[in-house]
What does this fold into?
Amino acid sequence: MGLQRFAADARVLMRLARGQPRSGSHAERLTAFYAPQAERYDAFRARLLHGREDMLAALDVRPGMQVVELGCGTGRNLEFLATMLPIETLAGVQLVDLCPPLLEVARRRFAGHANVEAIEADACRWRPDKPVDRVYLSYALTMIPDWPAALANARSMLAPGGRIGVVDFHLPAAGGRIGNAFWQRWFAHDGVRLSDAHVPWLHAHFDALRFEARRSPVPYLPGLSAPYYLFIGSNRPHSACTALGTA
It folds into this structure.
């Protein structure tokens, strides 16, 4: 099983080693980068993209709610959410992504759910027909060049009292200049743009209900752990704030 997994991982690792193309539109670069690894995307990244289930649990999604995921990829996160409540009990779920190969996986995955819609669109510009109750971004913000526009768009689509959930890599203040420079350069090769501005932006524009700074192990790089964070915020004043963990 270990050799089989490594052989499958090797195809993803080769794509990662080549990096994301530097030419073409953002959508074209994403397609060229992810198309060869779309079918193996979830299995490989399960060992790298930590905190997703925790973020979804803290988002407190309830039956009857309208939910949007911006930068949904293959839709794997909705499967995590399905372990917390039946997807059929939601008023609707809209999965938005700019990468057709990944989005096609999401469409196949939820083809039997009439209330789930997979939409090929830009997370910075797409808007639902009516306000939604929950919006979340899971390791998508660092892939979006104009990430402030994506967050502003997310905020604009939330109904009063709605909540946003974000989990992603970042550059923590406690990471140190050398450590942060290493991770910034390492991730940039694959089009992942680490920043020290995401967390301050979220705290400035949403009322923080929960924030945690964490670290995650990196596959095939023993001893190294990448910094990431979990944020839950509300678009209305709220006095409760939980800050846990260290960067």
In short: The chain has one domain: 2-245. DSSP finds nine helices and eight strands in the chain. The longest helix spans residues 2-18.
